[in-house]
Amino acid sequence: MIRKVIILRLIIILTFIGSMANAQEVEKDVLHNYFVLTRKIEQLKPIALAAKKLKLEDGNSYGEFHVVICGKGVEQLVEKKLMNPYLDLLLKNEIKVFACGFSLQKFNVKEEELPIGINVKENGILYAFQVQKKGFLSVSL
């Protein structure tokens, strides 16, 4: 009787250990994607540094990093002297940068004036919800 109990406990323990190993294996296959919604161009440097650090931490689990610039900050996107160092840093860290289309309209910034590499999302807030539904980790600054 005691022998049967010991064997049963061993089977339960081994099953538990096996399921934990499978759970960890599944975790390795999950990509970590990130999203930031910001209104301040000055935030692009710390955002890029965070992306760089996350990429190192995540290793093969690192997915994508998206940034949407909205509000009054879109006015600065066309200032080449200001934006070039940021764009170099963002490109170097493989960050996809978008401008909010509604903000561009509100502040009279034309899409064709944007630097190469900055695309437009018609509604930055809607895009934030869409990527959250896809599992992106997000923060707004």
Automatic annotation (TrEMBL):
Q: Which residues form the signal peptide?
A: 1-23
What Pfam families does the record tag this protein with? Answer: DsrE
Segments traversing the membrane: none
Query: Is RNA-binding among this UniProt entry's keywords?
Result: no
Q: Does the keyword Transferase apply?
A: no
SUPFAM superfamilies tied to this protein: DsrEFH-like (SSF75169)
Gene3D superfamilies, per the entry: DsrEFH-like (3.40.1260.10)
Keywords of the record: Signal
> What's the protein here called?
DsrE/DsrF-like family protein
Gene source species: Galbibacter orientalis DSM 19592
